[in-house]
Design goal:
Strand content: 5-15%
Structural class: alpha+beta
Radius of gyration: 13 Å
Number of helices: 4
Amino acid sequence: MPRPPRDQGLRAHLAGPEQGTLGARVRAARLVPYQAVIGPREAADDQVALRLRDGRLLDAQPAAEVLHRIGMMIDARSTDLIDRMPALRGE
């Protein structure tokens, strides 16, 4: 089980169904670099589907790998989006 994002020094905000439809929650957070979409399928497989700031939705990836990659990008002060990183594109 991966460490929670906040334990890794990442900021995280949970927007559950009580805060509106998925579309409304996505629109409300449209300026954040990464939105983690975790539905029943992703939760069952300990995966995360990332939605990027430009609206693209990436395939589900293991949660630990996604958190690790985002942490590496922050440490490197990279402005690239995560889909440009080879390990998450399947290269």
